[in-house]
Amino acid sequence: MQENSRNELKILGWLAILFAVLYYLPIEAMRFQGALIEAFKLAKWYAREHVLLCLIPAFFIAGAIGVFVSQNAVMKYFGPKAKKWLSYSVASVSGTILAVCSCTVLPLFGGIYMRGAGLGPAVAFLYSGPAINVLAIVLTARVLGWQLGLARALGAIIFSVVIGLLMHLIFLKEERAKAAQVQEVFLGEDEEKERPLWQVALYFLSMVGILVFANWGAPLENSGVWFAIFRAKWIMTTIFALLFGACLWRFFKVRLGWIILSAVPALVLALAFPGYPVAAFAAGAAGLAVLTSICGPELKDWRDQTWGFAKQIMPLLFMGVLAAGFFLGSPESDDAGIIPNIWIQALVGDSPTTIIALIRGDGAAIPGWLGLIWPVWTNFFASVAGALMYFATLTEVPILRGLLDSGMGQGPALALLLAGPALSLPNMLVINSILGPKKTLTFIGLVVAMATISGIGFGIVMGR
Fold it and tell me: Does residue 400 form part of some domain?
């Protein structure tokens, strides 16, 4: 009876909170209306720019990890008993191959972690995947200066290893229990003959190639190597798609006729709409979904694993994207989120002059204690803001250029670069569903703390 009464009171409390929120909802305020529009604008932009080209290939790759990569292989390179130098070395440089954002890396992280990878290497991969993007680092050096580009590259590699090791040490008891349960499983000769490692590697290479080149971003200059690769991105994507089809035919015994038939709609759309390659890409993804449904139990297991990741991750991602758009606006808008941009700029500036002017008016004196703690505060705030904002691949560079032009210091700029690409509000929701709240909060805290410390140190070195 007493427990039932507590439940009823809990329901009453939530209803009261909902009533109060609706009662005082500032729907008449223009900024509130604009923030609502921004939430859906960001969701629309995300759906157009990232779901088809980024998330769907990532889901298929994550599903393939769960089906076609043996648990023994994951344990050997990423498991609790794996050699630390090997697992962390591989995980920390993974971003040089995967040009992914903080959301696209999530299915891949979930795939290797649920397959048995140790917490430390899996978290190192989670951080490094979006953080160590070669094109983004080159663009950072070109647009923001070589000092920031170099600091970002070194910081991201060091961060991934240190954060992974700290997560391992903090949850050492759980990791030891996990390691104790690991049974060394060695493949028999028959299983090795069924699908050699080189076949699995070629198969994953084809899928990663499709993911990387389909999402290759446009450089700022219309010349040079990066621009040449950008112009050829869909040719390269097609080459990797052909390699992928060949893998399905030769390694997975899918009938060539079925593969050709499933590719026909993509080919037709590519010829009919050459200026809109996303349509052909979507048709190809639909064709693959059909193949995985009709071509044997192994491919059906792949479909089920892929769908399982999609069901778990997609709703949380869109909830997070809506929230990020509401609070901070979309990339296409300068100042439309519920939090005015001028406040963000004021809170990461070289001095507290702007924020004092906003609060108390022009000419107000700066308290001594505020000037003393200001460098620590700006770097901490930049780390937190970067962790909450959503940055698609490469978009952080022009956004940061605008903040630097508005008075942002070099230290906070690095702090935002180290925290931003690896974390976002949508990303946090999904990580929580995989790791749980305790590990998720620890990971977020480590990223923010290390980004803050790095920003303070870099600011001292640069004199800003």
Answer: yes
Residue 402: pLDDT over 60: yes
φ, ψ of residue 187 to 5 degrees: the values are -70, 140
The sign one gets for the Cα dihedral 399, 402, 407, 411 is: positive
Who contacts 332 (Cβ-Cβ below 8 Å, separation ≥6)? 41, 45
- Name the pTM for this structure: 0.72
User: Which residues are bridge partners to 408 per DSSP?
Assistant: 349
CA distance 319 to 321: 6
The CA distance from 269 to 273, in Å, is: 6
Structural domains of the chain, count? 1
Place of tokens 């990532």: 58
Q: Are 59 and 95 in contact (CB under 8 A)?
A: no
Q: Which are the contacts of 415, defined by CB distance < 8 A and separation ≥ 6?
A: 379, 380, 382, 383, 386, 451, 452, 454, 455
Domain contains 339: yes
Q: How far apart are CA 420 and CA 391, in angstroms?
A: 7
pLDDT at position 297 is 83
The encoded tokens of residue 72 equal 């023994």
DSSP string of 230-271, one letter each residue? HHTHHHHHHHHHHHHHHHHHHTS---HHHHHHHHHHHHHHHH
Asked if residues 376 and 412 have their Cβ atoms less than 8 Å apart, the reply is: no
CA dihedral of 313, 425, 142, 148, whole degrees rounded to 10 = -120
SS3 314: helix
Which residues, 6+ apart, have CB-to-CB distance to 441 below 8 Å? none
- Pure H helices in 329-338: none
CA distance 255 to 238: 20
At 76 the three-state DSSP class reads: helix
> 185: closest CA among 38, 74, 78?
74
* Whole-number Å distance between alpha carbons of 219 and 392: 14
Q: Is 110 left (phi over 0), alpha (psi -120 to 50) or beta?
A: alpha
Pick the residue with more confidence: 81 or 437? 437
Task: Report the first-to-last Cα separation within the chain, whole angstroms.
Answer: 63
Domain that holds residue 379: 327-462
Within a domain: 427? yes
Could you tell me if residue 405 is inside a domain? yes
> pLDDT-based confidence at 424, cuts 50/70/90?
confident
